């Protein structure tokens, strides 16, 4: 969730607390603030037990970063150096799996692939995208391949045909409007 979203949610909870203090019931609070009744009743219970501070934000959820700010700076430096410097010489691509391995090697901290992806995005990197094009890249050969081979290889889209809102069967003739196309024509049975 974005910081803006968290601020809006906290604002709504604080508005709910003000309404509870005025004696307004949770169902009415839900209607006024356009939130679910379940949320309003939950907030009311928290407010009743611990007051306004129970509805205050406790900060962003999720687990804390296991790397210190200093280690994050070092990791960003390692990522800027490129994968070849750290043993991946076959290409110049930082995959999330490689970053997770690098973190384990350099900082002795275990990160999952998805955790490494989130950490890379936080540092301004995107996984599996080269930082720069390889020097050996032949632009002319790439253009020829795109124009000749790719047009033959890529899949054609599905042909336009009569479709139904149901994936399992077509709409029943009984529920079709009387003036709908195809009314009176028997639909094939599946």
Describe this structure in words.
By secondary structure, the protein is mainly α. Helix content is 48%, strand content 0%. It has helices at 3-21, 26-33, 37-50, 69-81, 96-107, 113-122, 139-153. Helix 1 packs across helix 2 and helix 5 crosses helix 6. The longest helix is centred in the N-terminal third of the chain and has 19 residues, at 3-21. It is flat and about 75 Å long.
Per DSSP, the total helix count is 7
Determine the strand fraction and express it as a percent band: under 5%
In round numbers, the mean pLDDT is 81
Order of helices and strands: HHHHHHH
Radius of gyration, in Å, reads: 29 Å
Class per helix and strand makeup: mainly alpha
| Alpha-carbon distance between the two ends | 45 Å
Report the count of strand segments.
Answer: 0
Q: What is the makeup of the main sheet? A: none
Uncertain residue segments = none
Silhouette: flat
Helix content: 40-55%
